[in-house]
């Protein structure tokens, strides 16, 4: 029987939610790692029982956990993330040079082909790789030592590498995004990197269409159209049809084009979801209404999806890694809020239901469709 | 046996109670106690001291016999009361709240 498993990272632990293919009733298991920030957890597409979790706390640093039984039990693995060679500097908030310091893992991306291989996007921005199921981590240092890296500056959340996209049709391709440096692509498995920010325009930086310096919040791709990328930037929803070489704005009729999260329907590569947020100073949904916006045309034309979502007095945020889609025939869409709700739609967004109301603030949501 | 009191988050991580007991060979210093702690509970490596530099993480403090030992040399001997197991060695997280 098909099952759906949600992996929810929160400010105070991780939760594993399971349901059958109807996705109406859910069993909640957790908190795992109670009291710790869990920025992200994700399962291997090759072995769905192999899960990785990024657990951190300002007092105690970073811990990476691994489960080999679908989240029933966990074991700490390696937590040593050492920058390779000279650490160099990046820009600090006051434009001074600041040495790179490892703070935490923001995103874990398991390999598409090997359950023991997993990538970690970290703050201060760099990309690490483990090929022994998380026991040891090696920096793919070409990104952090890119000639533009000394000019990168942190966003409000820190200088974080938060997005890692792997592409089955281009096995050596990795796409990453960094706040607030921009998006980068490697076509040689991380040995070299190309900034892919042409077409982005950010009025909060001195050179508005600079090669780097854009606060990219999240990037999404549909596996059947790997050259088509969708981006939620600080402001602006963007689209690329050439794997990031060029971008164009597709914000269209959105009520605001600020936001964090963006995702693509599992069967319809031109169907895209965003959750507009009021502004960079007001990190909550506009007008007190929680609305997911869906475009079935690859952007520009957006419809508000509101059925089952609060339409008054709602002031939550939805963070960059807090939306996911399952691969059932009727695509399930899930997102978590800063208010601790996790909403699910079993009909591609037409209607929604809060499957938990009162978790700690949600940092990330991933979903596994289990056969 | 040396008694070590851990902060709550690390008890969860190491799956232990409030206090753990450790055998420490040779002189009982902060370094030898923490080395023994990390050897017994490897999941704590990097959470109390930096894995490479062995420097104390900034939001943790070390206490023994009601004295703050955080700024002492890690190779100074700990008090005899701690070495004899009559008093615990405390690893304390800075208080959070508002």
Summarize the structure.
The complex is a heterodimer of chains A (371) and B (98). With 371 residues, chain A is mostly beta strands.
Q: In what range is the share of β-strand residues of chain B?
A: 15-25%
Q: What is the CATH level 1 assignment of chain A?
A: Mainly Beta
Give me the CATH architecture of chain A, please. Answer: 7 Propeller
Structural class determined from secondary elements of chain B? alpha+beta
Helical fraction of chain B equals 10-25%
Q: Strands across the major sheet of chain B, in which order?
A: 2-1-5-3-4
Question: Could you say which overall geometry of chain B the principal axes of the C-alpha atoms support?
Answer: globular
Order of helices and strands of chain B: EHEHEEHE
CATH architecture of chain B: Roll
Biggest sheet character of chain B: 5 strands, mixed
What is the CATH homology-level superfamily of chain A? YVTN repeat-like/Quinoprotein amine dehydrogenase
Strand content of chain A: 35-45%
Cα(first) to Cα(last) distance of chain A is 6 Å
User: Low-confidence parts of chain B, pLDDT < 50 over ≥5 residues?
Assistant: none
Whole-number total of structural domains of chain B: 1
H/E order of the elements of chain A? EEEEEEEEEEEEEEEEEEEEEEEEEEEEEE
Overall number of strands of chain A: 30
Mean pLDDT of chain B: 94
Describe, in plain words, how this protein is organized in 3D.
The complex is a heterodimer of chains A (about 375) and B (about 100). Chain A has about 375 residues and is mainly beta. Helices cover about 0% and strands about 40% of the residues of chain A. In chain A, strands 3-2-1-30 form a four-stranded antiparallel beta sheet, with no helix packed on it. Chain A has a four-stranded antiparallel beta sheet with strand order 4-5-6-7, with no helix packed on it. A four-stranded antiparallel beta sheet of chain A has the order 10-11-12-13, with no helix packed on it. In chain A, a hairpin with a 6-residue loop joins strand 2 and strand 3 (about 25-30). Chain B has a single domain (about 1-95), classed as Beta-grasp domain (Ubiquitin-like (UB roll)). Helices cover about 20% and strands about 20% of the residues of chain B. The longest helix of chain B is centred in the middle third of the chain and has 11 residues, at about 30-40. The mean pLDDT of chain B is about 95. The interface of A and B includes residues 33, 63 and 82 of A.
